[in-house]
User: Which sequence fits this backbone?
């Protein structure tokens, strides 16, 4: 039903389940009758760009940006030429403070995705201008399965869980060999309460190196 073109095709069994068939029908109706983000061909970009076996870091978001031209299937990321959203601006500020990186001129995080940073939203679609509008469609059943599969994986990885919503997914991460980092959400409403200064990016790279894995080049050009 959905072909991802890499080892995430292990999800074929999920795509055959009743909940996903209902989700697919609901999405067909939504895309026909409303403006929905991202474009239907971008929904699974996070999985297409970051195969299961290559995943070294997971950054979990809630749902896609709901403004025109923003969402393209990667959590926190926007296409080049689109204004960098406030939460991503704060992520860049923390990267500058933590690793001394230059704040990028754009908000496209595909460079991270292609290095093994899975930029996954819990809900993969949203109506224009209506945040969390697809919360009840059944996306969380699929994305919880994705998180759980990674959480059971033997090869170590880092999970960055920002905000109470993401922290609530920690129970899906069964392998104690993974590094789970939690902090407030980078939103302007909460970043100053502990996201700034969390140093998750340097901690992630130190952990990966300790595990004999390549670190992430976090600098966006």
Assistant:
């Amino acid at each position: 039903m959905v072909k991802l073109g890499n080892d995430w095709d292990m999800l074929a069994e999920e795509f055959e389940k009743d909940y996903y068939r209902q989700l697919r029908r609901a999405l067909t109706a939504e895309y026909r009758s409303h403006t929905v983000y991202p474009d239907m061909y971008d929904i699974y970009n996070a999985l297409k760009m970051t195969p299961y076996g290559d995943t070294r870091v997971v950054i979990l978001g809630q749902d896609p940006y709901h403004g025109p031209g923003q969402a393209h299937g990667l959590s926190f990321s926007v296409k080049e030429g689109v204004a960098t959203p406030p939460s991503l601006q704060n992520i860049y500020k923390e990267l500058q403070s933590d690793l001394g990186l230059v704040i990028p001129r754009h908000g496209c995080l595909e460079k991270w995705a292609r290095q093994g940073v899975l930029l996954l939203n819990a809900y993969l679609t949203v109506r224009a201008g209506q945040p969390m509008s697809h919360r009840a469609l059944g996306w969380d059943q699929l994305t919880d399965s994705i998180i759980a599969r990674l959480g059971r994986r033997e090869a170590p990885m880092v999970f960055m869980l920002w905000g109470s919503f993401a922290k609530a997914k920690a129970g899906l991460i069964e392998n104690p060999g993974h590094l789970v980092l939690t902090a407030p959400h980078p939103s302007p409403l909460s970043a100053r309460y502990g996201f700034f200064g969390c140093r998750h990016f340097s901690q992630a790279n130190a952990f990966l190196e300790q595990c004999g894995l390549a670190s992430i080049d976090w600098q966006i050009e």
Observations:
- The mean pLDDT is 97.
- The helical segments are 12-15, 18-33, 45-49, 86-99, 110-113, 139-152, 163-167, 200-210.
- The two ends are 36 Å apart (CA to CA).
